[in-house]
Design a protein that fits this description.
The protein is built from seven helices and eleven strands. With about 240 residues, it is α+β, with helices and mostly antiparallel strands. Strands 1, 2, 3, 4, 5, 6 and 7 form a seven-stranded antiparallel beta sheet that branches. Strands 8-9-11-10 form a four-stranded antiparallel beta sheet.
């Protein structure tokens, strides 16, 4: 297979769920698509749109991106990683009374599988693949809904604690010292995630560190100590030993 192409089934093995071996082999061939590669730094998402008119979006194969949304000077951000489906240029300024500025930044080198009309036609005989793509959008919507609910907590330290455990549900890894959140989260980015000013986040993170709720490694990753907050106990922490 060319290095600038990938099959959805190789990008994410979950796409093969429910397929027998023979069907999976055919689907792996038919689900091949082009790759776009991104290097760390600001990303011009509009320029990444394929010339083909039926370009639907991207599946993130690997890497880490952040979407920043600014409304009247107040910003929030969303972290996206492997398995997420996105259509980064889709924003209809005529369809909303609230104007927003959207920016993208690549935090870690990324590969994006192109979801275009030709791919959709090729995978039509495999409805499971379409269902799996659809489920990725549902997952993003659920994660954003949880983040929105967390942002309504009054105390900044509660928002930070809940947000970090929410991120750990997806990205966390268990270590002897606690649950490591291997994401580049400085105080400014944490402030955008929880809807607070950076000085307030710095103060609250210091308080949480003194309480023993978290600590920071030399590489900048955060370590969560103890058990998840009660409000998150119904979630599944996807943790693996490192």
């Amino acid at each position: 297979m060319p290095t600038d192409a990938i099959s959805l089934l190789d990008a994410d093995p979950d796409f093969a769920d429910g397929l027998d071996a023979e069907t999976a082999q055919r689907a792996r061939r038919d689900a091949r698509t082009r790759l776009q590669r991104l290097t760390p730094g600001p990303w011009d998402a509009a320029a990444a749109m394929e010339p083909e008119v039926h370009h639907r979006g991207f599946l993130i194969c690997d890497g880490l991106l952040v979407r920043e949304v600014d409304v009247l000077g107040r910003s929030c951000c969303e972290l996206l990683g492997p398995g997420d489906v996105m259509r980064p240029w889709q924003w209809d300024p005529e369809g909303s009374h609230v104007q927003a500025e959207v920016g993208w930044e690549v935090l870690e080198p990324a590969r994006l599988a192109v979801l275009d009309g030709a791919l959709v036609q090729r995978i039509a005989p495999y409805p499971q693949l379409g269902v799996e793509l659809f489920s990725r959008g549902i997952r993003r919507a659920h994660a954003l809904a949880v983040a929105l609910a967390i942002s309504h907590h009054q105390r900044v330290d509660d928002r930070l604690r809940l947000t970090l455990w929410h991120l750990a549900e997806r990205w966390g890894r268990v270590s002897p010292d606690g649950v490591v959140v291997p994401l580049p989260l400085n105080h400014e980015r944490l402030a955008m995630l929880v809807g607070a000013h950076r000085p307030s986040v710095t103060t609250a993170m210091g308080d949480l560190a003194r309480e023993g709720a978290l600590s920071r490694r030399d590489d900048g990753w955060w370590i969560l100590h103890g058990a998840p907050p009660e409000r998150l106990r119904h979630h599944r922490l996807a943790a693996a030993l490192i």
